[in-house]
Amino acid sequence: MTNERSWDAVVIGGGIAGLSAAQMLGRARRRTLVIDGGSPRNRFAAHMHGVLGHDGVDPAELLRRGREEVAAYGVVVVDGSVTTVIDDGDRMRIIRDDGTIDHARAVVIASGIRDVLPEVEGLAALWGRSVLHCPYCHGWEVAERRLGVLATSPTSIHQIELVRQWSDDVTAFTADAGHLDSETMARLIARGIRVVTAPARALVTGDSGALTAVRDVNGTEHPLDALFVAPTPAPDLAFVDGLHLTRADGPGSPLAVDALGSTSHPRVWAAGNTTAPYGNVPLSMGAGSMAGAAVNAALVAEDARHAVESRRHQRNAHWEERYASDERFWSGRVNATFAAVAQTLSPGSALDIGCGEGADAVWLAERGWQVTAVDVSETAVARGLAAAEERGLTDRVRFIAADAGHALPEAKFDLVASSFLHSWEPDFPRIPLLRTAAERVAPGGHLLVLSHAAPPPWARKNHDDDTSAHDGPPLLGPREELDLLRLDASEWTTILAEVRPRAATAPTGESVTIDDGVLLLQRAAR
Question: What number is the average pLDDT over the span 43-63?
């Protein structure tokens, strides 16, 4: 049976970049897995240099410390290799060579690169000892000795000139550097660099196994103590071929990323030599750390989106439960304030947002309006439809069960009405929804918003001196609401913005007066 596990993040590659990313994710309390192939690029070197605070440390020792550190934060590190990464939408599926499947919300690629060395006899055997790649990493240790540089491309000219900083005894093997123009030759000669144009054939070693010379194709031996060479970088990225990640120009076609390590895929980041083939340990460490932090930031944002969506579903479920708990929730009669305002308008097309059990929508249809009514409660919508069928108005009113904040019809309407679209919850998106409602108003049409400008008496905590006390934040009056909508004054005219008292019956049966806020705007005709 295939073993499958889920993680916040899976880091592919347990080198410096991968462990740095994992450390940040672990410290951010993310469930993190590191899959390590066990072949770090610098495994051939006994010491690393230019790493502040770790100068001269064995690279393997740094990785050992790194593993211990990330484990302390709950990061799991396993040996293995990845064969495929598949996009499953809100998750990435990572398949290992042993068949294990891991699912993750984010992936960090830190698998590094392979160094492809020139095919010169004896060179591979001395790689990391007498054959070196970076003068900043190894130049100090061989300074003032006989140094050589084996060119692998025209860009090797830069390496040749760099190595001259560490010794005045430098031999450049330029067969693979292409044509050297007169300006380049002048610089090399002026710096006392010997130029050998014959291709190198083999490395010569002494009794101790150390490099003593490079033999060219003509049989000439050029005495050396160390040889620098820039290998061709070869990132092994076949496991993400199916993701079609954007590659950057340059040797090895590394993955293209931004400053945070983001790739062209929204759930994939990359760091280290997979993005910067010639980057050293500190650069890989920093890039990995940044990528790890960027992954956590992306997951934080996603967590917030999920939480908002969950709250929305909870709110919607609340209204459905509220309507379904009684055979009828409202009176079935049109709201008196709504009718008083709407009857002054000429019939046309109308959108009723938060229609409840449909009394206002049916009333409009009876008066010649073509109505679309939306409410989040399926029970409420079903009751509205039943009322329309009873009056033979199904050809004039259409009911939609949907979240108005996400699924308002795209059409334009002569009247867009929202009645009592309020909530005690501070995160209810009242104002954004009303702005969206305004966008649905046709030129020359009207936006009608009704709300409780003040809470009804039965919502108050007491009936004594503090008549403003109630079980939630104060609701906005119509003029405050108008300010918050921030509509273009050149496009909208305020027809009404006032508070109207309305007689109502409390749940206790007593007659009460409710203050209804009325906001009626007209959009300019074009």
Answer: 83
